[in-house]
Design a protein that fits this description.
Elements lengths: L3 E14 L11 E12 L4 E12 L5 E14 L1 H4 L1 E3 L2 E3 L3 H23 L14 H9 L3
Antiparallel strand pairs: 1-4, 2-3, 3-4, 5-6
Helix pairs in contact: 2-3
Length: about 140
């Protein structure tokens, strides 16, 4: 079976920064990532949302939060994605890995652009090993 996919949309879904915080050491932050995947069988798309919060290690204050939302079409959708209520399954989990990876890459670029000129300028979201991403979503697929 030949599977074709395409990105339909990519949008920033949230951005906020705590402009009042006085960060003394840019290395004293942690990154809290999240991602979700949903199947829309009517629109024949997979929706992936990925985001990250930058948090101060000193006092656990959220310094910034950014997220992006992407929609990917798949053909033939019904052969590749089996929707069961609010969850879905696929015999091709690598496809979902690809969608998450694309969305995280977009998040990384949008985050860098948003941090320009702020006290978080120069902070780069770390790379996440694909194995970690795969394991986190395979538990849900």
């Amino acid at each position: 079976m030949q599977i074709r996919y395409n990105i339909q949309s990519l949008k920033e879904s949230e951005f906020k920064i705590n402009y009042d915080y006085n960060l003394e050491d840019k290395a004293a932050v942690t990154f809290e990532f999240f991602h979700t995947e949903k199947a829309d069988s009517n629109a024949k798309v997979i929706v992936v949302e990925a985001g990250c919060s930058v948090v101060s290690v000193k006092d656990n204050t959220e310094l910034a939060k950014n997220s992006v939302r992407a929609e990917f079409s798949i053909m033939p959708f019904d052969d590749v994605i089996k929707v069961d209520g609010i969850t879905f399954r696929t015999p091709v989990p690598q496809l979902i890995d690809t969608f998450i990876n694309v969305t995280l890459g977009a998040l990384r670029g949008i985050f860098s652009k948003n941090m320009l000129g702020t006290y978080l300028d120069g902070i780069v979201l770390p790379l996440i090993p694909m194995k970690v991403i795969s394991e986190s979503h395979k538990q849900r697929l």
